[in-house]
Specification:
heterodimer; A: 308 residues; alpha/beta; two-stranded antiparallel sheet; 11 helices; 50% helix; B: 90 residues; mainly alpha; Non-ribosomal Peptide Synthetase Peptidyl Carrier Protein, Chain A; 4 helices; 53% helix
């Protein structure tokens, strides 16, 4: 069954299995500059023929600019929105090409570089207790790359995700090559058993927390307006007694990434509902800060202020 | 009320609380499938997590893996059976 909200979010004419297979074949069998060139062309087409996704990003970027740069005149803001949306589409194309290379047969260890930033020792300290942790990321930069960077750093990482229309074939290959475990939750109620076991075994669970995956969500301030964030990740953290480390993987240059690990957020307090809300608000604030600093790689194609 | 009935009431109260159900524990039938959306309660993976953690906290009984979870978390009856088999009386 694929009844999560993310199933609908991922519906797009390019998000089909043959496209992923073709992309991987092109990136595998041709010189990289040819592969990236073809990707640029396909992305240009996607930009012109994806009105819903374009509108989604436009609305998101507009609100982000309204909040972070209120002094901008409306015409200037709209000019920046158009420019950024175009850039975001093409960056998403690069994202796709990078992942296709990571999923393919090329030797990638020297091809992709991950520079760590933030206090990674805090995560090591947490793992030394014998319990795992949750790493929470957003549709920002190359989140798969973040998992790869963690695995390269020797962190036992498991990605928790919903299946989408096609991307999972690439996700699975990238994860396999990088020695990253995966758990698909979808509507399988017993998937949580695997997740609890993983946390108790000292694994790090990586998940995207910026889109509500079902009706369990809480609205917290995000770029000045209430936006719905999923309750699931903070509830897992609270019940398992583990901290949440916000983390992001943003690119600096071609195939050069910065893997940022932020300070942990604890989900504690006498009132569990309030503790969860507080943690979600803190998470949203950290995500907002990093999105604001990397707007051109904010790949949230669905309106951030209308999901419930 | 005998031991079995007391245990059953506690399990029902725990399920209602964990899943934030808008029904009284007494309305919960012993054989309702927990995860069936049409014939049962339609609980999801987060509810499973809450129930598993609460069974541990309240009764001191672990549900260590997926296989045990699939067997135990069928209905109130199956949870009660597992608790009794683990030595819980009330």
């Amino acid at each position: 069954m694929n009844d999560g909200a993310l199933w609908e979010h991922s519906r797009h004419w390019l998000n089909i299995r043959p496209i992923y297979a073709f992309g991987e074949w092109v990136l595998d069998s041709m010189p990289l500059f040819v592969g990236y060139g073809i990707t640029w062309g396909v992305t240009e087409m996607a930009y012109h023929f994806s009105p819903d996704q374009r509108a989604g990003i436009e609305g998101n970027v507009r609100q982000a600019l309204l909040h972070t740069q209120p002094a901008l005149s409306e015409p200037e803001r709209e000019r920046q929105v158009r420019k950024l949306v175009y850039k975001i589409f093409h960056n998403r194309g690069t994202w796709f090409a990078d992942l296709s290379v990571m999923a393919g047969r090329r030797q990638v260890s020297g091809l992709f570089h991950f520079e760590k930033s933030g206090d990674w020792s805090a995560l090591r300290k947490q793992l030394a207790t014998g319990r795992g942790a949750i790493v929470a990321s957003a549709h920002l930069g190359n989140w798969h790359g973040g998992g790869v960077a963690m695995a390269r750093a020797g962190v036992p990482v498991r990605v928790v995700m919903y299946k989408n229309h096609a991307g999972d074939i690439m996700d699975t290959k990238v994860a396999k090559r990088a020695n990253v475990q995966q758990t698909y939750i979808n509507s399988d109620p017993m998937a949580m058993m695997e997740i609890v076991r993983a946390l108790r075994n000292g694994e790090v669970l990586a998940m995207l927390v910026d889109k509500p995956w079902d009706s369990r969500s809480v609205a917290v301030p995000f770029f000045g307006k209430p936006s719905h964030f999923p309750v699931g990740p903070v509830r897992v953290a609270r019940l398992a007694g583990v901290p949440i480390f916000p983390a992001f993987c943003v690119w600096k240059r071609t195939r050069q990434y910065e893997a940022i690990l932020c300070d942990p957020i604890e989900v504690t307090g006498k009132d569990p509902v309030e503790a969860e809300r507080e943690a979600i608000a803190k998470l949203a604030a950290v995500i907002e800060k990093h999105v604001a600093g990397n707007l051109a790689v904010w790949f949230n194609f669905t309106p951030a202020w209308s999901a419930s | 009320m005998n031991d079995d009935a007391v245990l059953r009431e506690r399990v029902k109260a725990m399920i209602v609380q964990c899943a934030r159900l808008k029904i009284q524990p007494s309305e919960l039938k012993d054989d309702w499938p927990l995860f069936d959306k049409e014939k049962g309660l339609g609980l999801d993976s987060i509810d499973v997590l809450e129930i598993v953690v609460n069974i541990e906290k309240t009764f001191g009984v672990q549900i260590p893996d997926r296989e045990t979870g699939e067997k135990v978390l069928q209905s109130v009856n199956s949870i009660v059976d597992h608790l009794k088999a683990s030595g819980v009386k009330t």
